[in-house]
Amino acid sequence: MEGVGGGDAGSAVAPLAKWRDELSRAFQYYLDRSTPNPVHRWLGTLAVVAVYVLRVFYVQGFYIVSYGLGIYILNLLIGFLSPKVDPELEALDGASLPTRGSDEFKPFIRRLPEFKFWYSITKAFCVAFLMTFFSVFDVPVFWPILLFYWVVLFTLTMKRQIMHMIKYKYVPFSIGKQRYTGKRPDAANSD
């Protein structure tokens, strides 16, 4: 008699857990397939951004949500542009960036890899888009003040990041595969 009531609840949970596992597996499959296609991933994210911007423009609200989204994206951008090991902290340990040609080469490794950067931004825009359907998040504010404050915050933060890049001589971007060539012959020797 005791097992009759408990079996009904257990049988209802099993299909739900199976469905959730299948959905999770399918999502991970498509996420894995998108990994080697950064252009397609970013184009998809631009489409999500366009939908969000159109929604905010159409509704004429949700400026606090947009401001919070902007701050979050700025935080992600700093992680994307920063090295995994901060040279300021590394200098305290005795190791430092190479300063001479004979020093060991250390490649630039990001604190936040590109895939996680893309995934976090896409998730953030999706969550912000869903938040625009709930009026509790539509706090009335004077949006030009928020925009001005965000621009000032962005400018100061990027200035500090660029100064850090200049001080420790690293560039977080690389375009294509580097090609190395041998020494070029002198013009006088080519005759």
UniProtKB/TrEMBL annotation:
Pfam families: Rer1. GO terms for biological process: protein retention in ER lumen; retrograde vesicle-mediated transport, Golgi to endoplasmic reticulum. InterPro entries: Rer1. Keywords: Membrane, Transmembrane, Transmembrane helix. GO terms for cellular component: endoplasmic reticulum; Golgi membrane. The chain crosses the membrane at residues 64-82, 117-135, 141-158. It is found in: Membrane. It is a multi-pass membrane protein. Involved in the retrieval of endoplasmic reticulum membrane proteins from the early Golgi compartment. PANTHER family: PROTEIN RER1 (PTHR10743:SF24). Belongs to the RER1 family. This is Protein RER1. It comes from Malus baccata (Siberian crab apple).
